Fold this sequence. Notes:
Elements: E1 23-24, E2 33-39, E3 47-52, H1 74-77, H2 87-94, H3 109-116, E4 121-124, H4 131-144, E5 153-158, H5 164-174, E6 179-182, H6 191-194, E7 199-203, H7 204-212, E8 221-226, H8 238-247, E9 257-262, H9 267-277, E10 280-281, E11 292-298, H10 308-316, H11 324-336, H12 339-351, H13 364-377, H14 396-406, E12 417-421, H15 424-436, E13 446-449, H16 453-456, H17 458-470, E14 475-479, E15 492-495, H18 502-511, E16 518-524, H19 528-535, H20 545-551, E17 583-585, E18 592-594, H21 598-610, E19 620-626, E20 632-639, E21 648-650, H22 657-674, H23 693-696, E22 700-701, E23 708-711, H24 717-721, E24 728-736, E25 746-750, E26 760-764, E27 767-775, E28 779-780, H25 783-801, E29 805-806, E30 814-818, H26 841-849, E31 852-854, H27 857-862, E32 871-873, E33 882-889, H28 910-917, E34 931-936, E35 961-962, E36 968-970, H29 974-980, H30 983-1004, H31 1010-1016, H32 1029-1050, H33 1056-1067, H34 1069-1078, E37 1101-1102, H35 1107-1110, H36 1117-1120, E38 1163-1166, H37 1168-1197, H38 1209-1214, E39 1216-1217, H39 1230-1238, H40 1245-1251, H41 1266-1287, ...
Parallel strand pairs: 4-9, 4-10, 5-7, 5-8, 6-7, 8-9, 11-16, 12-14, 12-15, 13-14, 15-16
Antiparallel strand pairs: 1-39, 2-3, 2-11, 17-18, 19-20, 20-21, 22-23, 23-38, 24-25, 24-27, 24-28, 25-30, 26-27, 29-37, 31-36, 32-33, 32-36, 33-34, 34-35, 40-41, 41-42
Helix pairs in contact: 4-5, 7-8, 10-13, 11-12, 12-15, 18-20, 21-22, 25-26, 30-31, 31-37, 32-33, 32-37, 32-41, 34-37, 40-45, 41-42, 41-45, 41-46, 42-47, 43-45, 45-46, 47-48, 47-50
Amino acid sequence: MLKAWKDSSRRSRSGERASSQGAQLRGNSIDEPTLVAVNKASSSGVVLEDVTAQGSSTMSLKRRRGSGNQGGNPDFNRLSKKGKGNNSASQLAQGKPACEGFRVPSSSAEQILEHAKIHNTIAIFSPSDDVADLSSKFLMWNIEHLIAPLRKVSIVVVDNEAHVDEMATKISIKSPLKVAVCHDPTDTAGWVDMSQNQIIVSSTNTLLDRLTRGIFTMSQLLALVIIDAQTVLRTGSALTNVLKRFYQSTSALARPRVLAFSSPVANSDAEKMERLLDAKVALPFAQKLRPTEVVIQYEPAHANSDTGLTQQVRELDVGELICRNLFRDAHYALNELGPCASDLVWRRATKEAETIPEYDHDPMVNAENDIRELIKNWVFSMPNANPSSRGFNVTPKFSKLIQVLKACRPYGNYFRGIIFVQRTSVANVMADLLRTINDDLGFLRPFALTGELPIIDIHNQLDVWQSFDTGKYNLLVLTKSLEDLDLPPSSLVVRYNAFESQLSYAYACARTCRPLGRLIHMVENGNDVHRRILSQFCEGAFSDRWIDIVINNGGVSIPPIPLTETRHPSRADDEDDLRAEPYIEDPSTGGRLYEQDAITALYRLTANLQKANSSGKPLLITKEDAGPQKTRKWTCTVVLPPGLPFEYVTGSVRLTPAHARRSAAYDTCVQLFEHGAFDHSLFPAPQRFEPTTGDSKALAADKVSGNRCYPRKRTQFWTNSIRLSGRRLFPFVVCVEGQNADYAPILILTRQPLPHIPPFRLFFSGMSETIRNFRGTPLLVDEQRLEVLRLFTLRICRAISNKPFSCPLEKMAYMFAPLKLPEQSNCQSVDFCHLLDYIPWDIVELAGKEWMVRFDLDELRSSPEGVHDMVIQDRLVEFTRRYYATHLRRDLTPLSKPEDSPRETEYANLVEYCKARRKGFEGLLDYTQPLIEVSKAAAAGNHLNPSFGPFTEPVKAAVKYVIPELSAKFTIPASTFRTALLLPSITRRIEDFLIVHDLNASLFDYSLHEDLLLAAISAPSAGFEVDYERLELFGDSFLKYLASAYVFVTNPAQHEGALHAARQRIISNKVLMQSADRIGLPPYVQSKPFSHKLWNPPNFSVDPLPSSNNTESAGSGNEGSVMVEISYANKSASHNEPELPGSSESADPQIRGGKKPQDENATHWLGDKTIADVAEAIIGAAYLSGGQDNALQAAKALQVPIPLTQQWHDFRRKALVPPSIVTRPLRQGTTDAVETIIGYRFRHPHLLAQALTHASIEGYDTTGYERLEFLGDAILDFMVVRHIFSHNKKLSPGAMTMLKGAMVSNSALAAVCVSCGLHKHLHFDSYPLATAFETYVRQLELKEQQEIKAATQEDRNPGQYWLDVEPPKALSDIVESIIGAIYVSDGFTSNGAEAFFNRVLKPFYDRHITLKTLSHHPTKILFELLQSHGCQKFELVKERCNSTQEARCDCVIHQITLASAVGGTVQAAGRAASMLALDALQGDPGFLSRTCDCRGRLQSHKARQVLVDQMVAVETAEENTISAPAQ
C-alpha cells in the first residue's frame, strides 16, 4: 500500500542543526501534511501523495508543492462539484474525478460461481460470456445443496419477453434440470402447477404480475437468477418494483439466493444495484482489490493523568478491589478518546448495575454506595473537539476522527461507515460520544457492536445487517475481534488503531471493496512503529489475494504467501475476561489460542504449508443446513493441504456462518495440536500484565567481584503438560546417528507434543555423535500398558542414576520405552502410526517387574546367540556395577585360569579367587559352566561437554570374566542401556531448547534460529559445545554499527567526539546489562555445567533404600564393597509437592549447622559483563537468523536505547547531511579516479568530497570527513568481523579477535590506503601532514620490498610489513570516511560498501593477514591464542637430534603432540612447529574444545597472563641469541 510516507512536519532541530546542514537525502520535507492520499490506480501498488491541512476544520486538500502531475491521485486532485459542504468534505465523500469513467470489468466464471455460493452476487458480463452455462451451474448447485424441502423452484428472469424461450432452451441444453417457460401474463396456472418444474424462465413483467396476484411469494423460491440486472437502474422498471415491493419486504431468512448479471456500469450505479439486490459485485482477481486509502496523521496526545472523577473513585476504592475492570476501561478511554470519554465510562457503569458489583459485607457495601453516589452527582462535561479551545477534552486522535466523519456528510443517506477499535470499552464510549456531538455530525447514527452475540446469534446479526442496510444505523463501531463478521458493504472503514496484522488489513479492504469505498488509517505523527506497520501493507510485502480470500470467507485456495501477524493479538478484552472460553495452551510458553484466534492461526498454517505443495482447494467450505422448525444453521468444513495428519475437519453446527467458520477453525487447531502437527509459533504470546522484571531482580550481590545472584529459568513445559493426564501420549524418538547396532533408539512419550528440537551432538571420549529426533502422531495407550511403561521408566532411571526413584503415573511428565526396529531399517523408516508395535513389550514388562534374572545354565550353553546384547551384574542387588557381555567363553570354566585376566593372577583359578575374596562363597553347583567375558559399563556422564574424558579403569585389576552362576542378567538390553546412559544429557538438552523456545517466543516472536539462540545464552562456564563468545564478538560489532548509524542520524550537528560519547551511552556494558535485566534476561542464561549426578526427572522423588539393597549381605572385603554409592541429593522431593522442571541439576546440599539446605541450582551468579555479552550474542544470532532488520528488532526487544528507529529504512528517511553547496569541491578528475579505485559510482558525489576533506582546510571544518569517518569505522568493523565469521566457521573467539584487531588497526588501513592509491586524493592544507605522508610512503614501500623478499625465500605469504612503521592517522581515516560516504550515498544500505570491501580490502587481507602471518613470531601468536581459549597445559618441547646437527621441536597440548618440526637451530624448529600448530588449529577448530578443560579450573586471568608472558619471553630471548634467521 504505502511505498513512501513523508514526515508530517519538520522535526525540531533547535540547537542541533547547523545553518549549512539543511538538505535531506530524501528531499525537501513538507511543512504541515496531515492527510496522505493513496492512489489505487497505480500499477505498482499504491502511491502516497502529501496534502496539507488549511486549519483544523476545513481540511481542504491540495497536492504537494512541486509534485506536478506525476504520480498524483486523480481521486483527490479534483474537487467534486456535488454537495453544499466545503471542498474537502465533498472530495473525501465523492473521491472520484469522473465516476462515469470507471467500469467494473468482467470476472471469471469460476470465481463468480464460488462467490455466488457464499453471497448474493452481481456478475459483470460481456456479450461473449456464456450466461446460460453459469446460470445452470449455479441452479444445479442450489438444488444439490437443498436445505428447505418446500423450496424447490428457481426462477430465471429475462428483461426482454422475446428472449425467454431462447434462454430456456440454452439452460435445458446446459443442465439436466426440468425447465418451463412462463411469459403469458394471462396464464392462470397456479403455484401447484409451476412447482412441478425445477426452473421457470420468465420475463420481469410476468414475474411482477404473478407476485402481485399472489400466485406465489418470494419465500417459496429457492434461487433467483436475473439477466440484464442493469435495468433496475431505470426508474419505475418492472425489476425495480419486484425488488422493492416483494424481495426487500421478505425477511432475510426467507429470501431466495440471487445471482444477477449486468453489463458494465458506473461506480454509483453498481452501488445502487448492491443495495437493491442485497448483493455484492463479484470483483475479478485481476482487478485491484484495494480501495482508495487515506492516511490520517494526528499529533501525539499529552501524557494525561487520571481525571478528577477517577481520582476520587480511587480514593473510595483503595486497592481497586471493587472497580478493577472499570479503572482499566477508564484508562483505555483516557488514552484513546480523552478525559471526557474517561468520565463517561463511570457514567455508563451507573446505568448498568451489574458493572459495579454489590457486596453483602462491610465495608465494601458502603464504599460501593459512595462510588455510586459520587458518579450520580458528578457534573459531566460535553465533548469539546476544538484543539484551540481551553475546554478541549478529547484526544487529538479522536478530534481527527471527527473531522473525517464531518467530511462524509455529502454522502447523505447513502453513507455507511465502520470504525474498528481494539477495546470493547472504547467502542461503547466512542459511540456514546458521537451521539452527543450534534455539530455537523447530526447525520450520524452510530451503534457499538461488541461482544460475541453478533457472532453466535443469527437474529442479532441479521438485525444489525438490516438496520445498517436501511440506515437505522449508518456507523458501526466494532472491535477488531469482530472483523470476520459477515458485514454489509460500507462507504468508509476507519482503522482507529494501527493493528499489526496483514489479515486485519485484508478484512478492512474487503469491507470497502466497492465503488467509492474509502479506507482510513489513523497513525500518530512521527510514530515509527505506526510507519513500520503501514510498510507491511506495501506492494510486495502484502498480496492482494488475501483480500480475495476474506471476501470469499476462505472459500478460495490459500496462496503460498505467508502472513505477517503479530503474536500479541489485539484482543477486545483482557485474558481475565476470556477465562470461561475454551482454549488450547502452548505448554512451553503458556500462550493460549481461543476460538477468535483460530482462523488467523489456520490461515498462517496453511499458507506456510502451501509453499511446498499448493493443492488449489478452498480452505473453508461453509454450508447452510436445514434445522428444526425452519431454523437456519451452518456448518463449515476445513479442507487441509497435504502434509497434515488428516484431509478435512467438519466443525459443529452453528447458528451463523461466521461462528461456523470460527468453530471449524478452532476444532481443526485442536485436532492438529492433539496430533502434534500444530506449529507452536502459531500460538499467541501470553498476556503479561506486568513487566517480567520481578523474576530477574538479583537476589544477592557480591561487592568484591561485582557478580549478582539471579534465579534460574526452568521450563514450564513439564508442569503444564501433566495437567492433561490421559491415555494420549506423544512420541518423541531419539536415536544416535550412525550407531544403530550399539545404541538402540529410545522412545520418549510426553503428555503434550514437544516443539521442534534441532539435532544436537553428544561427546564420547573425544568423539561426537549426532542425536536426531523424530516426532510422530499421538498414541492411545491403554491403562495396563501405561502402568507397564511407568515401571519401565522407573527401572531405567534407577539404573542410570543408581538412585531409588519413584513417581506416580499422574505426575510422570514423560516415559521411556525401547524400540526394536526391523533389520536394515532406521528411525526414518518407522511407521509412526503403528509405533507401539515396535516396542518389545515382553522386555518392557520384565524390566518393570525385575531388575535382574538368574542364568539358566542349560539354556546359556545351547543358545546360539550366546550373550548378545546383554548386560551382566556380578552381584544380586539392584544398585551395583554392571558389565557388557562381549563373548560366551565355552572354552573356559570356573576351574580355568585365564591368562588375560590380571585379577586372578595370584590364584589357581576363578573358584580359588572366589573362595578368597567372596564372602560366604560355598562352592558352585556346576563347575563346567562356561565363563562370560565382559567389559565395564561406564556410568552416565556429562556428554554435553566436548572435553568429556574417556572412562578410566580403576587402579585395581578390572573384571575380565564372570561366572554365570554367581551373576545375573540385567533386564534391560545392552543396546538400550547404552542409549539410556545418554538420557540425562539428552533430556537436559531438550530442556535447554524448551527454555530457548520460551525466550524466543516471549521476546523475539520466533525470529531467531533456536540453535543460535541457545549458543547465545550459553556462557563458557557451562562447558557446552558452543557458547556465546563467537556470537558476542559478532553482535558487538553489529551493535557498534547500529549505534553509530543511529547517533549519526539523530545528531546531525554533533562532532565526532560527541558522537563517540552518544554511542557509548547505547552500547556500554552497563547499559546493556540494565536493559537485559529489565526484560528478565538473566534467568535464561545457561552458566552452570550439567551435573549428571544430580539429574532428576520432573516430579521424581528418592525413596529410602530397602535394607536388603543397602548392604551386600553375602559379601565382605574388597569384593563385598562393590556396592556403588547412592546419592540422596533429592531425597527431600515428595509426591505431594512435585519438583519443578530443571531440578534435574539440583546441587548436592551440604547441611551445616542444622540449617535447611538450599537448592543452589535454582540460582546462579552472573557478572554484569556476562549479561551484556549475552545480549550482544543474541543480537548477533538475530542477524545470522534474519539480517540487519531482524537484528534491529532484537536490539529493540532487548531495550537497547534506540527509540527513534523502528526499521533500517528510518535511517535513510531521517538522515541530514551537509548539502553540496557548502562542500569543498574536488579537484578535476578526483571523483573518477577514486570511483575507479573503489569500484563504485557515487549517487551523491558531494559526499565523496566531504570524505576527502581534511580538517586543516579552512572554512570547511563542518564538512570534513570526521563524521563520515566515525560512521565508516563502525561499518568496516562489522564487515571485517562478518568476513572472519563466515570464512572461519569454528575459529575460536580469541583467534577472531586477533584477526579483527590486525585488520582494522590504523597501521593496516594506512597500508591499504597507500597500496591502492587513495592517499593521493585527500584534500588537506598542512605542510607537516604532507611531510609525514611522504616519509611514511617511502618507508612503507621499503618494508614491503623487504618482506616480499623474505617471504619468497621462506616460501610463505608476505606478512604485516607495516608494523614497524608509524602511520599518520589521516591515512586510515580516508579508508573509513570513504566507506561512510558510500554508505550514506546508498541510502544507508551496505551494497556499495561491501563492493569496496570485496574489491580493495578483502584481497589485501587474504594476502597479508592470516593466523600464520599475524606476526613475525608465530610462537607468540600461538601462545596468545591458547591463552584466549583458557588453556594452560601447553608447551614447546625442544631437543637436539643426536645423529644430525638439526634440532627438533614438538608443540604439546594436554599431552597431545599437535605439531612437530625439525630445523637447523632450536629457534628455527620452534618457529616452524608453531606455524604448523597454527595451521593445524585453523584446520581443526574443534581441537581445543575437545581436548582442553582448563577453562573451568580456578586460576586467575593474571596468573595465566604471567605464564604466557614468561613462555614468550623465553622464546624471544632464545631467538635473540642468534644473529640471523634460520635458513
